[in-house]
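Memo to structure team: turn this sequence into structure tokens by end of day. - J.P.
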Amino acid sequence: MDAIIYNSKTGFTKQYADLLSKKLSLSQYDLKKAKSALSKGSEVIFLSRIKKGKVDEFKKAAGRYELSCVVGVGMSIEGEEVAKGFKEQTGIDEPFFYLQGGFDFNRLKGMDRFVMKQFRDAMVPRYEAATDLDEAQMNMLKMFRDGGNCVSIDRLSPVIEWYRNRENVC
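Reply from structure team:
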């Protein structure tokens, strides 16, 4: 494994990249800076935010590097169905992990801020009016209202386990 590459807009994915880099003793690079630091075809772990239900910049990263695994980071709580949906919608063949990151409206800029404001303004009243919210919906309501940071090394355990098992096989 050559490195960890990440794409982060509000910092939550970068926090995961920092933690994973330290735990696995691998260098990490922002996707934009990786081009000058790594050669085409380098074997990497790719982390990126979820945007519009897909792993943002996946095609760009997959076109340049050998992605050994992909980690999507978003607001939703983890779950097999959530991960499966993002993996299928993005078209990922590599091992895929989904991690809850966080939400901070104040860190959003430009079109991302505009879109999330529209989404938040539509979803909050709907969630507030509902009487039968499940855990994921309650989590989203809390994130939209208060923001939050759910990044932790514990959430990276499946990725770390995958990496260590992979290293033992090779």
